[in-house]
Amino acid sequence: MRRRTLLGAASPLLLIDSGPPSRPRWIHTWTAAPQLTERHNLPPEPFATLAGVTLRQTVRVSLGGRRLRVRFSNAFGTTALPITAAAVARPEGGRAGAAGIVPGSGRRLTFGGRAGGSVPAGAQIVSDPVDLTLPPRSNLTITVYCDEGWDGALTSHPGSRTTSWLVSGDHHGDPELPGAVAADHWYLISGVEVVATGASALVVLGDSLTDGRGSTTNGNDRWPDRLVDRLRDPRLAILNQAAAGNRVLRDGLGPNALARLDRDVLALGGATRLLVFEGANDLGTTAASEPAQRRVTGDLIAAYRQITLRAQACGLRVAGATLTPFGGNIYDDPDGVRETARQAVNSAIRNGLFEGFADFDAAVRDPSAPWRLLPSFDAGDHLHLNPDGHAALAAAVPRSLAGVTAGSAMWR
After folding, report:
1. Rounded to an integer, what distance in angstroms lies between the CA atom of residue 66 and that of residue 64?
2. 24, 74, 136, 405: which is deepest, by most CB within 10 A?
């Protein structure tokens, strides 16, 4: 077991972490937060559902391994999800969004020794392990075929920034999918795990700024991806558990962050650290009046404390990231009331609200007008970041927040 020693009960910064256990264990190397599929994110024509359809998707892992398993989610389903067949493989050319797979690389997934599995509404299913060498920072193809009789609500992750492919009939083992239809969403998949020794995971809890809006489709250049590339630590997984439109306090596009914390963070295998970067949607969707913004500021700070307490109770160390500017966006207001609230939240983050922090605000704001993004980082809506902006956020994460060296007395 991981052992921690508390040096003085007054400060959570004085936690010594002896590091992850040296025994092999299952650790998530890729995740996507399950979301309810809205009408405009349903499978494209001619597919009304995924019943009787082969779905091929690619994901980019952080940790490598030689043995893996896949998680499928029916979190928002209304009926049981029947998985008739599923497989993993290396994508053609190693490319994200590839429709083809490398011949001979496919591995059939089983579930408790059976060829398929049924996932009850609201549940998930974990495949049996398969042997497949998965290099760090590489792409993996996951193909699934669902029974023709299935008719239920879809669980998905719309902001995949990665192309998936759909074709009628069972073609889960085919190297190519002629005539397949593209969709830039992930469906049904929620995690990939590998067996690793001495490794751990940093989980990022966020909204569309972390989910990758403004990044490049099939480019894997969201800021968590860029952080993986920057650190290149073979012992560290970085897990993106962002959901576009998410709020900390209230449901929006899916459950609020407090409600999804257990499922999307605390239940993840190997998670030892958490970085919280959301709250802009809470400020931006609250009335632009001083009383309302004072109230939501206080509620946000209290919610961050709750997230920290719950995560620490499960052995995680918790950092926060300052909220980035939105001047000129629809969240902006003529009197600057929301900007005042943003600054108040950021002041609390910089002054010890979490165990440590990444100053994302300082990394991407315009020095001459700090209430707005630097134009060269602006994706165009004055809220989201382009690939250069995502790179700037990745560069602003202190190494000690991502991987604490054994024996280090605090997060610096």
Report:
1. 7
2. 74
What are residue 118's DSSP bridge partners? 82
Q: Please answer whether residues 268 and 228 qualify as being in contact, where contact means their C-beta atoms are separated by less than 8 angstroms.
A: no
71: Cα within 13 Å, side-chain hemisphere? 26
Give kind and range of the element (H or E) at residue 58: strand 53-60
Rounded Cα–Cα distance for residues 406 and 387 (Å): 33
C-beta pairs of 405-412 under 8 Å, 24+ apart in sequence? 406/17, 406/18, 406/19, 407/16, 407/18, 408/16, 408/17, 409/7, 409/14, 409/16, 410/13, 410/14, 410/15, 410/355, 410/356, 411/13, 411/317, 411/319, 411/355, 411/356, 412/356
Average pLDDT over residues 108-118: 96
3 state SS of 27: strand
**Is there a contact between 88 and 69 (Cβ–Cβ < 8 Å)?**
no
CA angle, residues 387, 391, 393, in degrees to nearest 5? 115
CB neighbour list of residue 13: distance below 8 Å, 6 or more residues apart = 355, 356, 410, 411
pTM: 0.92
SS3 for 328-347 is CCCCCCCCCHHHHHHHHHHH
The C-alpha atoms of residue 170 and residue 34 are separated, in whole angstroms, by 24
Task: Tell me the two tokens of residue 210.
Answer: 């972390």
List C-alpha distances in Å: 305 to 85, 248, 354, 355.
43, 12, 8, 11
Q: For residue 178, what are the β-bridge partners? A: none
On the question of pLDDT at 15 being above 50, the answer is: no
- 254, pLDDT greater than 90: no
Query: Which residue reads 């990394």 in tokens?
Result: 363
- Bridge-partner residues for 134, per DSSP? 65
Beta-carbon count within 10 A of 75 CB: 22
Q: Above 90 in pLDDT, residue 83?
A: yes
Q: Residue 184 and residue 199: Cα distance in Å, rounded?
A: 31
Q: Which residues 6+ apart lie within 8 Å of 315 measured at CB?
A: 2, 4, 272
CB 205 within 8 A of CB 261: yes
User: What value, to the nearest 5°, has the Cα angle with vertex 269 and ends 254 and 8?
Assistant: 100
The H or E element spanning position 165 is strand 164-168
Place of tokens 């508390």: 6
